[in-house]
Amino acid sequence: MNLGPRGTRATIGAPGTGISYTTKLSHKSPHPKPPPKKIVYCPRCEYQGKRKRKVKGSFIVELGLWLLILPALLLLPVAGLVLIVALIYSIWRMMTAHYVCPECGEAAVMPLRVYQKRLAAKQ
C-alpha cells in the first residue's frame, strides 16, 4: 500500500497479483456534514424527512392521449393533432411538478439545512 498525505491519492494493491486501484484519501472534517437536500422541513406540521413529488394532472389521461395516437394513425391529420395535444399535456405535467410534505401536503416545504440555519440565526 502506497499512502500519501491526507487529501491526496493512494494506490492500493495485492502484492504479486498485478491488481491495484487508486483512491482518494479523505480527511475527517471537524464540522458535521449538513443533511442532504432531499430532507425537508414542513412549517405547518413540523415534519422532517424525505420530500414527496406531486405532479398536476392525471397519468391516466396522459396515457390515454398517447394510446390514441395508434388508432389515429389511420387518419393522418388527426394523428398529428393528437400527437401535439399529448406532447403539450406531458410537458405541462412535467413543468408543474413540485415537492410537498408527505404528511400534510403543504407545498411550502424548505430544505432542512435552511431551517437549521434560520434557527441558528435566531439564537
Short description:
With 123 residues, the chain is α+β, with helices and mostly antiparallel strands. It is built from three helices and seven strands; from the N terminus they run βββββααββα. It folds into two domains: 1-27, no CATH class; 34-122, no CATH class.
Keywords:
2 domains, two-stranded antiparallel ribbon, alpha+beta
The low-confidence parts are none
Number of strands: 7
Number of domains: 2
What value does the Rg take, in angstroms?
Answer: 26 Å
Shape descriptor reads rod-shaped
Structural class computed from helices and strand pairing? alpha+beta
Number of helices: 3
Give a structural overview.
With 123 residues, the protein is of the alpha+beta class. The protein has two domains: 1-27, no CATH class; 34-122, no CATH class. Helices cover 37% and strands 20% of the residues. It has helices spanning 59-72, 76-95, 112-122; strands spanning 9-13, 20-24, 39-41, 48-50, 52-54, 98-100, 110-111. The chain has a three-stranded antiparallel beta sheet. A hairpin with a 6-residue loop joins β1 (9-13) and β2 (20-24). The longest helix has 20 residues, at 76-95. The model has no long low-confidence stretch (mean pLDDT 76).
